[in-house]
Amino acid sequence: MVGLAEVGIAATMGALATIAGAFEDAESDVGSQSNPNSQVQLAPQMMNFHRYFNKAISGEPVSYMMYGAIAGTIAWVFMTKFGLPFLAAVAIGVGINAAVHMIFATTAHLGRIASAAEFGHPIYLDVVLSHLGPIAGFGAIATFCIVSLAYIQWSILKHPFPMPLLAALWGVTVGAIGSSTGDVHYGAERLYQHYPFGCGVPVAAHGNITRKAETGIRNSMDSVFFCSKFGNPATGLCFGLIIFFSTWAGLFGPWGGVIAMALVTLAALIISNRIEKKARKEYGTYEDVSVDEICDPI
Amino acid sequence: MRITSLLLLSTVGPSGEEEEVEVHEAISSNLLRAVGVILGIFGGAAAYIHPAIAGMVAIAPILWGANAVREVANYGLGTGVPSIGYMGLGGGVVAAILGAALTGVLAFGSYVNAVIGLAVGTVVGAFIGGLLGFLDRKVIKMKIPVMTRCSLEIVAAGTLALMCLMGAVAGDFSWPVIHAKVIKTGIIALLWVLCAMSLLHPFNACLGPSETQERTLALAAECGSITATITGVVTLDPVLIIAGVIAWVITFSKFWKLTKRDAAEVTWTGIPPKGQ
Amino acid sequence: MGLNARGFGISIPLLIAATIVAILGTWWLSIDKIIANLILVTFGSVLITIGVHYVPVGGAPAAMATATGVGTGTTQLAAGSGLTGLITAAAMSDKPFVVILWNGAIGAALMIAITMLVGNFIYIYGVGVPPCSAKVDKDPITGWDQDPYVTPGTEGHGIPTVSFVSGIFGGLLGGAGGGMVYFSLYKVLKMSPALAGITAMGIFYANSVLASYNIGGTIEGYHDPKFKRVHRAIISSIVFGIVAAIFTYAISYWVM
């Protein structure tokens, strides 16, 4: 029987997931992790020196799997061994994870930029130090929400998987979503802001990332200011909807859940098709546009 | 133009000419293999003396695996360096659990059991890795000549590192304890991802034309130290935590020295020059 | 229409076959363990591998709107959806096989569908490009022209309808494969949920990396010419599935 409590759990999990998704994406934008990272990596090769943070810690799914697993396991150990309440235990887990996160971020940036020595790219230490705070902070919020999700599922919904495994698996999911939705806003728009709006980035322009900020030379923290207006909340919405619908569908029983999830999937297909049609009609074609025009910086 | 074609190549993946890439080595790969296997198997089996031994020797197979990742990823895999790490540990976790399960049916005494379990697990890991590499090479037709050998080494090293850490968490490399303390609790997921990251992060982080083997391996040892420290934290073992932190300080300062040596310039701040 | 026939012709029979296998349910527990495990793990591996080929991923170029598909790596998205499917499947652990299978499948499909929908929101409203494919002249499902809408110098961007449908199939197949492997390890071999979960995850990762090497990092869906390479990955996954089945059986044999 579905009571108010179950609906409340679904809503809470959806809310936690929304926060996790939004901050996960913000964190990856501060460090330009995952796929847009290829452009930050390519830039020195194109003699385009920059002050971006080059945080190449694997892809987001596995790095978030690591954060979730470290924080989740430590929280679980402190809860079971010392009987700490969840909130205290998760604070310890997230804190230790933040330290590991900063170490990995530092080594990734130092390693990548040092390997660009052939092109003469210098390492700026202030870039490293000034970005570590936001990276650890955003990462900690996201990790906290992931571990909380795993805890709710493990302790209240009685999922058969142990809590550390659940935290690791939700980390993979949030990383996969963050790198496939929000990062596009960062990679295709923010990194190439001095190119015209309304087109993809041609291969010929790759590596020629925007160097200048609103004032001075751009660094990666400026990107969050931009992406938090669309990319980050959209990522949060995406993860929140997934968690909400998959938990909510579970309230209809095994087969009701399958039907409910199928209907949501179908609705997503229809909405996507409609906005595709609308975009085609309103944006028009690229028939009169040449590559040179698009590759011409504003 | 060269850059564009490089980029296209990396997106198109397994195609193009097949040629051996010369990989510069400061430390011999054979030494890393030998040390990785011997220390991993005999050190990992010593977990019953003190878990910290098994936790710290995991660094040896991690160095071996990171070196193999470096060799194969120099060719460009088409999907980025990390994928080979996931493959290594994806096959590795099956082999590692198999090696651990084997100790449950042996009856030669604790240490010999563990040595056999670790050795069989590594061989099974090598078999799975060799098979995956063979399939990549012959069926999927990847144009990487060293794929079979490197995949074999990566999965074997990943398996061995994972088994050492399992022994460190359980306090003894024998199945009943490992099942109760490592697998049922879900800590295996943590060990899985720590091993995968330790294998793939060093080369992934040092990717670029001026990459050197010394720096990559220093970073691998640094990742291994973090892995050992975190293993110490989740088992609440002060010896392993202290040993891991000391190892981290040493390896990180080594990495930092090599970074300063290899980098074009290390400065506090500055305005990046506009290149030609 | 040949493309649709190929896409639907492979995925729907596979899903039906998987459902039939699942309806047999407890019958798998009555036959010899090694045979049941061999069939289920190998079939699950094949489903995972084919599923990866259906998921439209553009890899790093898609994150710059330079290629059609979701802007992330193949392994990453497949693992994200497949492991979501694993979580939903495991939540139904004590239910019949067919329930586990379909919860895994539809959980993964839901994850991938919402990700693609929000991805399209970002492509359309954040980057300002209409979703289109450079691999086909007309979308095989809607019949809309593709070529004029492709930014010059790129290989398409966004997730057009055909890729969206393909992605849903990819989620269904991948999730069903994960659920099938999980069922085999948990019910047939009687492993504990955690052991079955982590082993299923390992098999999932190894298979999805094999598949992603086969497509070289990017694919737009079943209409992509690279999809023709799927047979190589099927052979690989059958071989790997057999080996994985034998090793997982050995684990359970020694543990029992």
Order of helices and strands of chain A: HHHHEHHHHHHH
Sketch the major β-sheet of chain B.
none
Estimate the mean pLDDT confidence of chain A.
Answer: 91
Q: In total, how many beta strands of chain B?
A: 1
Summarize the amount of helix of chain A as a percent range: 55-70%
Number of domains of chain B: 1
Provide the number of structural domains of chain A: 1
Query: Got a strand count of chain A?
Result: 1
Q: Which strand-content bin applies to the residues of chain B?
A: under 5%
Contiguous low-pLDDT stretches of chain B (5 residues minimum) are 1-16
What is the ordering of alpha helices and beta strands of chain B?
HHHHHHHHHHHE
Query: Proportion of β residues of chain A?
Result: under 5%
What is the number of helical segments of chain A per DSSP (H or I, 4+ residues)?
A: 11
Instruction: Please give the largest β-sheet of chain A.
Output: none
Distance between the termini of chain B: 15 Å
Helix- and strand-based class of chain A? mainly alpha
The Cα radius of gyration of chain B reads: 19 Å
Tell me, what's the shape of chain A? flat
Radius of gyration of chain A over alpha carbons? 21 Å
Describe what this molecule looks like in 3D.
The complex is a heterotrimer of chains A (about 300), B (about 280) and C (about 260). Chain A has about 300 residues and is mostly helical. Chain A has one domain (about 5-250, about 290-295). Helices cover about 70% and strands about 0% of the residues of chain A. Chain A contains eleven helices and one strand; from the N terminus they run ααααβααααααα. In chain A, α4 (about 85-115) packs antiparallel against α5 (about 125-155) and α9 (about 230-250) runs antiparallel to α10. The mean pLDDT of chain A is about 90. Chain B is globular and about 65 Å long. Chain B has helices at about 1-10, 30-45, 50-55, 60-75, 80-100, 110-140, 145-170, 175-185, 185-205, 215-235, 240-260; one strand spanning about 265. Chain B contains eleven helices and one strand; from the N terminus they run αααααααααααβ. With about 280 residues, chain B is mostly helical. By secondary structure, chain C is mostly helical. Chain C is built from nine helices and two strands. Chain C has a two-stranded antiparallel sheet. In chain C, α1 (about 1-25) packs antiparallel against α6 (about 95-125). The interface between A and C is large, with 87 and 79 residues. β1 of chain A pairs parallel with β1 of chain B, so a sheet runs across the interface.
